[in-house]
Design goal:
Elements lengths: L18 H31 L12 H12 L12 E8 L2 E2 L5 E2 L2 E4 L7 E7 L16 E4 L24 E2 H10 L3 H8 L8 H13 L13 E3 L1 H4 L6 H6 L6 E4 L1 E3 L3 E5 L7 E10 L4 E6 L5 E8 L1
Length: about 300
C-alpha cells in the first residue's frame, strides 16, 4: 500500500457515505495495490538484469586471487629457456666406443629447462617408401604430398586399420611446433622464413635446417637424411600461395617413431631365433642436461621427447 496519508475520498464527521463513495474507494485501493506491485516487479527485473560483482570472494579481492593463482601455477616472468615445457630431438647415434662390449657413444641433450624433465625414447623405423628397392639407402624421414593428394611413393604411409589414418604431420603443424619452443621475440624472425610467396623448395629447406642443424655434431642427422618424393620435387619451384589455391597444401613430414620404453628388442647374436632386451640408460646429469646411453654397439636412430 501507499505510504501517503491522504484519504482516497475525503469526508468530514456527519457526512453521508454513499454506495458510490464505497465503490470508488474499492477501485482506488485496487489501483493503488496494482501500482505498488508493478513498481516492485520493475525494480526486481532491473536488479536481475544488472551485473552484480562482489567486492571479495572468501575474503579476497579479484586482484588478490589473480596474484595468488599466478604465483602458484605460472611463472610471472619468462626470462630464460627454462620456461619451455616440451621439446623433441632426433638422434642418429653411430659412433661406437670400443669395449668390451662395444657401446654407442652416449648423446648429451642440453635442454636448459631448469628441472628434471620426463623422458620418452622412440626408435625411428624405416619408412616403406614405394620405390625403396631403387633408393641408395633406407630413409627415416620423408616429405610427401598431403593426405588427400595421390602421392604414389607415400601410398603405404598409413595405418592398416579400417579408418586408414595417415602417418606424419602437415608442415604447418611442424612449423607451429618449432615456433612454440621459441621466445616471443624469436618467433617473428623464425616465421620470416616461411612467407607465402616463397617456393615450396625454400620452405622445405628452411624447415630441414630448423629440424636438424641446431643439434650437436653427435646427432648426425642432416638434410640429406630426408627423402623428397617426386610429387614434392615436381612442385618444388612453385610458390606456396599457388599450391594453396590449387588445393595441394599442406605437404606432410613423415617419420615413424615407436615407443621403446628404454628397452630395445634385438635378435640374440648367438641364437638368432631368440630376442634379447637391450637397455637404453637415461641419466639426468643436472637440471639442464640429460644423457641418452643405449647399451648397444650398432647405429641407432631415435626420437627423444622431453616434458617438464
Amino acid at each position: 500500500m501507499t505510504n501517503e496519508t491522504t484519504p482516497y475520498i475525503s469526508r468530514n464527521p456527519g457526512d453521508l457515505i454513499t454506495s458510490e463513495n464505497w465503490n470508488d474507494v474499492q477501485v482506488k485501493v485496487k489501483e493503488d495495490i496494482a501500482g505498488q506491485v508493478g513498481q516492485v516487479e520493475t525494480a526486481l527485473n532491473e536488479f536481475k538484469e544488472a551485473p552484480v560483482d562482489a567486492d571479495t570472494f572468501d575474503a579476497k579481492t579479484p586482484e588478490e586471487w589473480k596474484e595468488d593463482l599466478d604465483t602458484r601455477y605460472a611463472p610471472l616472468e619468462h626470462t630464460h629457456d627454462g620456461v619451455r615445457r616440451y621439446h623433441r630431438y632426433f638422434l642418429e647415434l653411430e659412433t661406437v666406443v670400443a669395449g668390451p662390449p662395444p657401446r654407442l657413444q652416449p648423446a648429451v641433450i642440453i635442454h636448459d629447462m631448469g628441472r628434471h624433465p620426463v623422458v620418452q625414447v622412440y626408435e625411428l623405423l624405416e619408412l616403406p617408401i614405394a620405390s625403396n628397392e631403387n633408393l641408395p639407402r633406407p630413409y627415416k624421414f620423408c616429405f610427401c604430398g598431403p593426405a588427400h593428394a595421390p602421392d604414389p611413393e607415400a601410398i603405404d604411409f598409413k595405418t592398416k586399420s579400417w579408418d586408414e589414418r595417415h602417418w606424419g604431420n602437415s608442415i604447418d603443424d611442424v612449423i607451429q611446433e618449432l615456433v612454440s619452443n621459441l621466445e616471443p621475440e624469436q618467433q617473428k624472425k623464425f616465421m620470416e622464413q616461411f612467407q607465402s610467396d616463397f617456393t615450396l623448395s625454400v620452405w622445405l629447406t628452411n624447415l630441414e635446417k630448423a629440424l636438424f642443424e641446431p643439434g650437436p655434431a653427435q646427432f648426425h642427422f642432416d638434410m640429406g637424411d630426408v627423402y623428397r618424393t617426386p610429387w614434392i620435387n615436381h612442385r618444388a619451384d612453385r610458390p606456396v600461395d599457388d599450391l594453396k589455391k590449387a588445393g595441394e597444401w599442406p605437404p606432410r613430414f613423415v617419420y615413424r617413431p615407436i615407443l621403446v620404453n628404454f628397452v630395445l628388442l634385438r635378435p640374440d647374436k648367438e641364437n638368432m631365433d631368440e630376442i634379447r632386451p637391450v637397455p637404453i640408460n637415461i641419466f639426468h646429469l643436472n637440471l639442464k642436461e640429460v644423457e641418452i646411453a643405449p647399451q648397444i654397439g650398432e647405429e641407432l636412430h631415435l626420437m627423444v621427447l622431453l616434458r617438464a
